[in-house]
Prior knowledge:
five-stranded antiparallel β-sheet, 25% helix
Amino acid sequence: MANKPKNKMTIPDRAKQFMPFAALKGLPDALALKEKITVPKIELSEEMAQILDQEMHKLSKGSIATVVYFRKDEYIQITGMVARIDETGRILQIVNTKIPFDDILDIISE
C-alpha cells in the first residue's frame, strides 16, 4: 500500500511557495534614490539668458512647449501646453506644473 500524504496542498498554495519574497521591504526604493545622479544648478551666461528670454517671448497661452528646468538637484524635461505665463510672479505653468523662471534652462516652442 502506497503512503498518501494526509494534507494534500492545493495548486494555488503550492504556487505561493515559489512567489518572490521581499525580505527587505523598501530596498528597491532606497537603491533607486541612491542611483539618482544629483547635479548642481547651471548658472546661465549672458548669451544663454538672452536666448532663453527670446524663447520665452515666443510662448503664448495654449501653445505647446518643451521646457528643461532644475528641481531638487536634477534637471527635468516636460512637454505640454502652456497654461499660464505670470511675468509678475515669474512663473511659467505647463499643464499643472509651475516652473519658476529662474529654474528654466531651455525652452523649445513648437
